[in-house]
Design goal:
By secondary structure, the chain is α/β, with parallel strands linked by helices. The protein contains 10 helices and 25 strands. The chain binds cytidine-5'-triphosphate (CTP).
């Protein structure tokens, strides 16, 4: 049946640890991977034999997450890289105490999972939460605002969109005590200094989405923040409302976009809110990328033809630009004036992808308008 199916195949191996680690099993798994199967690696723990090791069937959550990711591969965010932040940062006071906030991380995790299920390559940068780790995405764990800023800056360099759902502390203790502060003085004063504003400081040609948790003048405050932080979209919510805000599964947000459009969404699950935000992100990203279907002549001639209606995002015909390939290398090329084809320096890319066939889809995304673009195969 497996050989007959055209559906994607996911294998979740489960066996004795020695059997799993045996090079024969590993070679076979590598072969399956090379043929396009997706492997959900087993977990570590008690095995049927009574021993402890690597071989337990992966958690159901992880298997389901992988299924969703595989089914979403051709979703409307396929080929897109999205960075999502979640949770509330912790700013240390001494080795045992910190300043924290009530963010549960649920909105950010829902955002990350929704983006994954629509085909995006997701990096989730999360402050501590009690939520289970989502499958099929890169998860980077941080504690403080400063650490989050470093992780976001690094991940955003390659990203198409940054969605800041984290509740980042606005202030951090100026000095962190090296030893536990003792209960001696009747009062204790902490001096706080501002943390970096991550959304404002992260630069680049990427879509930026913020969340504004407000307790008064929700729309007005959110609109001001959108301007100040130069965002493309702001999701504002009133945290004083019972069914929206911290620690609950639902949220009632108003979406405010850069062009001033305001849309108040009804109360819905955080996952639904995430999808509505991503609908907007897809719309904004569409203007920054083109999808192309590989034709037989392209494979034969090792060229890519850009249809005339899709040339708008590129510099004028005959003008050079950089094209980043999937191995990270960058070639300099242009769209030929006469043929509408990209042929200069691109033969190597075709050579590196002998599996490419007519009907496959590729996506070219603007990294830096008129200067740098990225070419990827949509799997
Ligand atoms: N944010 C950020 N870096 C910070 C603080 C906030 O990137 N140091 C992001 C949040 O993740 C959120 C957006 O900015 O997406 C708005 O956060 P909010 O706390 O509402 O805004 P502030 O600028 O901190 O304004 P204030 O606390 O004065 O309301």
């Amino acid at each position: 049946t497996v050989l007959a199916t055209k559906a994607p195949v996911i294998v979740a191996p489960s066996m004795d640890a020695n059997m799993f680690q045996n090079s024969i099993t590993q070679d076979n798994l590598a072969k399956l991977k090379a043929r396009g199967f997706t492997i959900v690696d087993p977990g570590y723990g008690y095995l049927a034999s009574g021993k402890v090791g690597l071989g337990r069937l992966a958690d159901v959550e992880k298997i389901i997450g992988t299924v969703k990711q595989v089914l979403g591969r051709s979703g409307d965010l396929a080929g897109k890289r999205i960075v999502v932040t979640a949770g509330g940062t912790r700013e240390p006071i001494d080795p045992v105490r910190h300043i924290g906030n009530r963010s549960s991380g649920k909105m950010g995790y829902a955002m990350a999972e929704a983006a994954r299920d629509r085909g995006a390559t997701v990096t989730l940068i999360t402050a501590p939460t009690s939520l289970p780790e989502p499958a099929s995405m890169e998860v980077i764990r941080v504690e403080t605002a400063v650490q989050m800023k470093e992780a976001v800056t690094k991940a955003s360099a390659q990203a198409d969109a940054l969605i800041m759902a984290a509740a980042v502390a606005d202030y951090q203790p100026k000095n962190v005590a090296e030893a536990k502060i003792k209960k001696e003085a009747p009062t204790l004063t902490l001096e706080l200094v501002k943390t970096p504003d991550i959304l404002t400081e992260v630069k680049g040609n990427l879509i930026k989405v913020g969340f504004a948790a407000e307790s008064e003048d929700v729309i007005e405050n959110a609109r001001r923040k959108l301007e100040k932080k130069k965002l493309d979209l702001m999701a504002a919510n009133d945290i004083t409302a019972k069914e929206s805000g911290f620690a609950v599964d639902t949220n009632k947000v108003t979406l405010i976009s850069r062009d001033g459009k305001i849309e108040s969404l009804p109360l819905m699950s955080k996952r639904e809110v995430a999808d509505r935000i991503l609908d907007r992100v897809v719309g904004m990203l569409d203007g920054r990328s083109v999808e192309l279907i590989i034709k037989p002549f392209m494979i034969k001639l090792r060229r890519i033809r850009i249809d005339s209606d899709k040339r708008g995002i590129f510099p004028p015909l005959g003008t050079g630009f950089d094209l980043e390939l999937d191995d990270g290398s960058v070639i300099n090329t242009y769209i030929d004036k006469r043929t509408g084809q990209i042929w200069k320096n691109i033969r190597q890319w075709f050579k590196a992808h002998p599996e490419l066939k007519a009907g496959d889809k590729v996506i070219i995304t603007v990294v830096e308008p008129l200067k740098k673009y990225r070419l990827e195969i949509i799997k």
